[in-house]
Structures are given as C-alpha cells and as structure tokens.
Amino acid sequence: MLVIRFAVSFPFLSTKTRGSKLQKTETDTDTLGRLLIFQSGATNFGSVYYGICTLVCWVPFLVLLSIPSVRSEILSLPFIFFAAGLLGLLTIFMRRLRSIGCYERGVIVRTGWKSRVVLHSEVAGIEFLAVPQYYKSIYQGTISHFEIIPCTEAPVRVRIWGSKRDGERIGQIVQLILQANPDAQLLNIN
Questions:
Q1: What are the tens digits of pLDDT across the range 118-164?
Q2: Average pLDDT of the chain?
Q3: Which pLDDT does position 13 carry in this prediction?
C-alpha cells in the first residue's frame, strides 16, 4: 500500500517542521475523520476545586481591603490573598492547555502549546493507568497517566487529574485505539 503525504505551507497555519518530518496540526482534523471522544485537562472536578480555592482566597482579600486599619498598616497582606487566588485561576488555564482528542483515524494530543497527531496505524504501544487518590478516606480525585508510543517517533505523555469518570473516558480512548489497531499493545506500568 502506497501512502503519499504532502503539506502546503501557509503563513497563517501553525505547521511546524521537525527535522525532515512534518508534524501534523489542527488542520489535519478533517483527514482524521469525526471526533469520537474528547478529554480536556481542565476537568469539571478540577475546575470546581480550583474555582472554590480562588473564591476562598479572594473573599479575605476583599474583606481585608475594606478595613481601613489593615489597608494603612499591612498593605501587602490583602494582595497576598489576591495572588493566591490568581494561582488557582492560572492552574485552571494551564490544565486547559492539555487535551486528548480521539478521532476515527488518529489521536491529537495537546500538551502546552504543542500538539501531536498520531495515527492509529502508527501506534506500537499504549500505557494507561488511572489511580484514585484518598486522604484520610476522603476521595480527592483520580490521576490518569496516558502515554502513546508510536513506531518511529518519541512517545506522547499526558497526566490529567480529575474525577473517576474522566479516567474512564481516557480508558475508552485507549480501547478505541486498540480496536482500530490490533497490532498495538497495552503495556504495563512498573
């Protein structure tokens, strides 16, 4: 089977070159088929958690800023609470940059400002692990480790902290990849 790949370079498209190979970007979603499952790093569980942390920090900021004696004596104290609240919002934004999109013919994994497209036929192995975290018998969330190992390129790793349902959704992505490529192996994490 002969496969011919070509790329057209436009200045407004985010096509990146790496050596002599061309990395596929968002413009390839039409060639990958329709979207089957999508999982973002900014899960509902994590976004609500960090949103509440932001509110818990900003309420004392507003209260301390409204007290005249605190404003005149310890001016930096309210702004420490404000900065702590901004860290919560920054965490939500940074987690939103990580996502996994499973299409009919491939997977797009976005980490930071980079994205990688791995076709189902190029996958040699997959590592997946979802571990729930408890603190004193209180459920704190599930950490999902997902790694795609292509035949010729460097592996793609994503870790997402979310709910049990988010871990199950990533498990469904793994099952779809394994069904599309029977030669791919599910590897154990040691």
A1: 898 899 999 999 999 898 888 888 888 889 999 888 898 888 888 88
A2: 79
A3: 35
For residue 113, which of 14, 20, 43 has the smallest C-alpha distance? 14
Using alpha carbons, list the distances in angstroms from residue 167 to 142, 146, 174, 178. Answer: 7, 10, 11, 17
Fold of 17-40+98-187: PH-domain like (2.30.29)
Angle, vertex CA 113, rays to CA 102 and CA 155, nearest 5: 55
What is the spatial distance between Cα 46 and Cα 163, in angstroms, rounded to a whole number? 8
pTM of the predicted model, to two decimals? 0.66
- Residue 40: DSSP 8-state: E
Where are the domains positioned within the chain?
A: 17-40+98-187, 46-94
**Strand pairing category for 106-111 and 156-162:** unpaired
